What does this fold into?
Amino acid sequence: MSAILTAEQLSRVLPVDPPVTLVDNADLTIETGCFTAIVGPSGCGKSSLLYLLGLIDRPTGGRLLLEGEELTSLSGDERARIRLEHFGFVFQFHFLLPEFNALENVMLPIRRLGRLDKAGAEARARQLLGNMGLGDKAEKSPDKLSGGERQRVAIARALANDPQIILGDEPTGNLDSANSARVVDLFRQLAHEQGRAVVCVTHDLAIADVADVRVTMLDGRITDVRHQT
Amino acid sequence: MNGRLALLFHIASKHLLVRRRQTLVAVSGVAVGVGFFLAVSALMVGSQADFVKTLIDAAPHIIVYDELRSPPPQPGVRSFPGGAVALRGYKVRNEVRGIRDWPAIVRTIDAIPGAIGSPSLSGAVTLRMGGRDEPLGVIGIDPTIETRVSTIADKLRKGHLSDLEQVQGGVIIGEEMAMRLGLGMGDVVGATSAGGATRSLRIVGLVKKGQIQLGQTSGYMLLREAQSLLNRPYIINRIGIHLADPYSAEEVAHRLETRYSYKAESWHERSADFLGLLVTRNAIMYTVVSAILLVASFGIYTAVSNSVADKRRDIAILRSMGFSQGDLQLVFVMEGLALAFTGILVGWMLGFLLMNILGSLDFPIGGENQKFPIDRSFRQYLIAAASSLLAGVVASWLPARKSARVDPVDILRGAA
It folds into this structure.
């Protein structure tokens, strides 16, 4: 286990009148091979922190380092490139593109990265879907899949470019308990067996209980970081 | 890089295929715009070319006359240029009418690329037939050169210009005058010149009536024979000039006049009013046509703009995946370009069809079946394509910029 992503005094203030502080001087270290859960009541800033960590949003203060490299001052295109290579997102809603079938959805980030040709991208996408137990559903369009299947396609898509960091924003929020448990198992595997850093924002205490690190937030501040065994 | 563009185009095409009806509307907008542009401009350009042919090419582009616009400077003035000397009341020497040293002038003209000079002699004769006299302005020409300088050869009802060379004393006159004198092809008529010389002339051709540029009181003869009839051997008093580019006539005429001081009249000078007409016509055409293309690009704007608005969620998802703002703008610009390209292709076919329909219509004017003059040059297709493509780029780029302003955080949070 080693630190991969480090937040130092990370802040996000909405420039409205009066200013709203979403994230307040957060210090956090994300480690590889570790399943981190961020918990807290609604509106405590846990999703905002996740978007800052995932380079979807820009901080208004503090620093963010990926493997010791400063990310805060990068341009939009450079941030997009890092998202493409190093991050995989899973949201509460599957967020699959409706015009593309499951396979094409998984292929999108692979083709954008451009390291594999089209055939290679397809082979990798099929393999990822196979790993998710969806080998026979590759050609189905998202609206022909069940909620659990869609979320697993979304996870396959998050893993498309073999990122070191997986970020989940309430990834089980829309799933029944069986599917939910399956997703949580997957996330733990990704951390423990594949050595990725997995960060999940959740209000589901069952997830928080099985996480290696449990980060608690309140009113934009990190109030507690507890390592669990 | 190519993989990236292919991928972005793949996304763009999916968006268009999903919104089939809007795509269809936008494409037909461009297609109708391009199609009608082609039809209208083919007619306008075609009719302009026809105008130019009828009114400009009918007569030589430039005519050099044996006249001077101002009298030649007197030796006294030439000796003291700019001096405070004014000479008055001196006697001017009589000069023989006609263009002096005309072979040199013709050589100068022929040295201009694409230009041909046709020397001719005109004078007045009287035709006599029975008890009737008809005045005729004869023009002595060299038929082989004259056919290249004016369109007179196309205006003949009967006979050929070259027949002048075959027949001794051959003359071509207007069909109306022939009718008045009761003459037909091959008939012989007596002609008397102002100098008193008389010849028998044989009708070898008739000029159609109703030609603006060719008077019914003109007749054509061989230059040699006209010189002999008018008793002015080796003299010519007009040089008609045909240019490769009729629009350079004014400048060429000016040059010739400065050099030889004979009056050189370009068609610009002869028909300045007509030129103004062409400018107005072109202004009208390009205004109408730009309006058509502009309206067509509104369809693209709406389609792309709606696509951006509809796909805000997809924009956010793609951004979170690692697509850049530039990628997404390109997706939407590609959508607009795809619409424009498809529209242009369909529009080309529509335009081609419309041109064929217009070109196949015929209507009688003055007893002759006429067709619309249609300009089918590929240039019009290129202009239509280039301008709708330009309009399409602007119409898709404007709304595509909005895609960059979509904040993924708002969408991802809002949906969650």
